[in-house]
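Researcher: We are triaging several targets before committing to wet-lab work. For this one, the compound of interest is fe (ii) ion. I'm pasting the protein sequence and the ligand SMILES. What I need is the predicted three-dimensional arrangement of the protein with the ligand bound, expressed as structure tokens, so it can go straight into our comparison scripts without reformatting.
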Amino acid sequence: MCMSNLFVNRSLEEVQFWGRIMKEHALFLRLGFTVDQPKLIQEASHFHNLFESIEEKSVSFTDNADREHIVRLNMETYQATSHLWAFERKVLELILSCKIITNSYPLFVDHASREAAYFMNRIEQLNKGILEPLPDAVINENVFFLRIMSDHAKFISHLLDPSERNLITEAADLSYQLDQLLFQAVDLEAMRPASQTGRVLSRLIEESRLTVQSLYDFKRTIKEMVEECRLRSVIHPLLADHMLREAQRFLDLLDRFEASLTAGPKD
Ligand SMILES: [Fe+2]
Ligand SMILES: [Fe+2]
């Protein structure tokens, strides 16, 4: 694939994956607002429609699309995401100052805004043609995704009905393990650049993969139970699927890192 096609392919892949995620965040926020919050419901619906149109536009392009068109699509997506991010931060402020009560947890709103900020950063890197050095990417992505995964375990644990005792314990255990891994990754972040040897980074990837695979399996069980109406919870079926897709995204990234590290020079 030539450089231009690679840029188009990467951009469309990012915009389609994260664009759908942003659209679903808007939907989850909308579902969390109460009937006496029509303005917020309207704003959330606006973002849902906005990201739906971006998604539709992005699937209309092929890998042979003109580079300039994709640069524009990326910019438009960046704008939309930055507005969604600002909306989420505003909602968080309203919740924490007790101006509104919604059914979305503050950590969920913060979490969604962190994913928006991450997406904006990815688009910016793509459009500017910046490629983060592999050792930095391994640490940064682990710090970002382990926190996201740990949040998911906490959301599941808190959205389960209190009578689902065993599953709540399982979710809390996963959350604890992921927190430990996250702190380890943060420690390695502080030890840079000394911590960026092939062996140290490989172990980080291995340990993350092991626990994230367990989380993935747990999420898949939860998703199936929600879909088959076998679970007592307030988990929306789309949220169960959404969290599973994000875990898959992290697992794919870990595979890519492992492959690149194995291909690179040994130290
Ligand atoms: Fe998400
Ligand atoms: Fe998430």
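Researcher: Any quick observations?
Model: The chain has two domains: 1-131, 132-267.
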